[in-house]
Amino acid sequence: MNYSQALRYLNSFIDLEKLAQLPKNPFFNLKRMEHLLKAAGRPEKNFFPILIAGTTGKGSTGFFLESILKANGIRTGYYHSPHVEDLRERIRVQGAMVPKKLWAEGLSAIQKLLHKNLLPEAWGVLTYFEVLTFLAVWVFAKTGIKIGIFEIGLGGRLDATNILRAPVVILTPIHLDHEAFLGNTISKIAAEKAAIIKLQDHVVIGEQCREAFQVILGAVKKNKGILWKAKPVSGIQLGLSEDFQKKNAGVAFKTAIILKKYFDFPVTLKRSKEGLRSRNWKGRMEAFHQDGRRFILDGAHNPISMNGQVRSLKAQKVRDPWLVFGAMNDKNSREMLKVLSGFFSKVILTGIAGNRAKPVAMLVEEAKGLFRCVLTARNVKEAFELLRNASNFGANIVVTGSFYLVGEARRILKHG
To answer: pLDDT tier at 193 (50, 70, 90 boundaries)?
Structure first.
């Protein structure tokens, strides 16, 4: 297969949204992933896996850890979602997305593997995310990765990444998240996410609410593991400059120390600090200048992240900004808009490409009574056209609510 054919093949697998409409399909299980790994000769045994679960901060924590390990000369892979512009961003080798040729080669290998090793029907159909996860494992093994960082997609207990036997796991702050799948309390959600903890694991956490912490502590004790509480970094210039990133950097820094002390990876303090200065991370408070205006793109997509974003904007003294907002159907956009309305008075509510996006009409209902000025747009391009007339020269414009929205905005700002 060439790259275009490989993409079509990947897109032939069913995604979670469609799968949820098929109640008889047992889509939450790890049997399919186990089948693939076994048939492929256990490629995951070729590298040291680390799992990251949580509600907020997973991406930034993973990025900081990737940057630290790279700076220390450790060949590192990072699997995360979602992407901003290009699907290949989800599988990073040494900080760079996978080349198209290797991507196609990997999916060709998966196609051949599945042809020779059919899945039992009772296990349900293979999903898009499972294929991507297996592709990441295949790529990391193929390219000689020493440490593979895997960000949990949904929950933890039955997420495809949890098939990996990770000696070190990270749990970022846990809050209400995907309640339809994970439960309607923080304790229930924490139990799903803490299920990535296995026997004698090292478990690294930062700030956690009381309910989540108790669940995590119980899981660590049950599995005879070791719990490590990380502190925010101080006195280090970070590549991601927002104040709340000090907490995420602290978790990554603590993880690196554990990798050195208990697993003999060559980590030094000097190089780790250098790694924390890396800026190669799209869509996190990223600024562009166009038409005499400053656009700030941030992929925050839950109320907790929005609080951090607002604090950062206040600290940067961003004055009287416009807000461009869109969200996915499964996100708590009403609460996000409430948080944002404490800082923004003018908003353009926009659609996002794809059937997962929340309709603009629904966003309008959720925004009632929250903002002084509410405008609507069918898409980001139309929102930016509105802003040319509605905003003043020198205006600040914040685009947020979804990484998919940020990706669309980024393409327009880069390429017109």
So the answer is: very high
